[in-house]
Design a protein that fits this description.
The chain is mostly helical and about 180 residues long. It is built from five helices and two strands, in the order αααββαα.
């Protein structure tokens, strides 16, 4: 496979796989969170189970992607505007930090409310011995604010990709799309 021998193409393929894996799990997490709104008690536990498991999975994927990004240098960074590189890195850092903070506040909301946290079929964390509902409510409020912040940064990320495609015309969007679609 020549694709894996060319450093630029290999970087692009791995970047796409990690980018879209994180995006897919984040979207699934968001949808499961939206499903929690208005869900009755009987179904709420099942939906919460998936929401928490997917949230923890997002953090794991972020750790993998961050470790990979730190260990690699993008071939495109060598010829770009330094300001754009800094802005891009800040957006990426925000896209990593906000979901992690979102997961932490969600887990703490459950623990403070006296609920255990599970990760798929495993018990992950036991609830706190002292239930603190006011703290749980405040953490839930912060969790919702962070969720809106993630959606806002995600929208800015999409707008930046569109700006690269239609204003700068530098092919960034084509590189971000899955490799079958990105060949234009």
């Amino acid at each position: 496979m020549n694709l894996l021998k060319d450093n630029s193409q290999r970087y692009g393929l791995i970047s796409q796989i990690l980018h879209w894996a994180v995006a897919a799990v984040m979207i699934a997490t968001y949808l499961s969170g939206e499903a929690l709104v208005g869900t009755e008690n009987a179904d709420r536990a099942a939906v919460m189970y998936w929401h928490v498991s997917l949230s923890i999975m997002v953090v794991g994927l972020f750790v993998i992607r961050a470790a990979w990004r730190i260990s690699q240098t993008s071939p495109d960074e060598l010829n770009q505007n330094k300001l754009l590189i800094v802005v891009h890195k800040l957006v990426v850092l925000t896209l990593y930090a906000l979901p992690m903070a979102l997961t932490i506040t969600g887990v703490m909301t459950l623990l403070a409310g006296g609920q255990a946290v599970g990760f798929f079929a495993m018990d992950f964390l036991d609830p706190w011995t002292t239930v603190d509902m006011p703290l749980s409510t405040r953490l839930q409020d912060v969790h919702v604010i962070l969720a809106h912040a993630v959606i806002t940064v995600f929208a800015v990320h999409i707008l930046a990709a569109l700006w690269h495609q239609f204003v700068k015309r530098d092919g960034t969007l084509a590189r971000m799309l899955p490799f079958v679609l990105g060949k234009s």
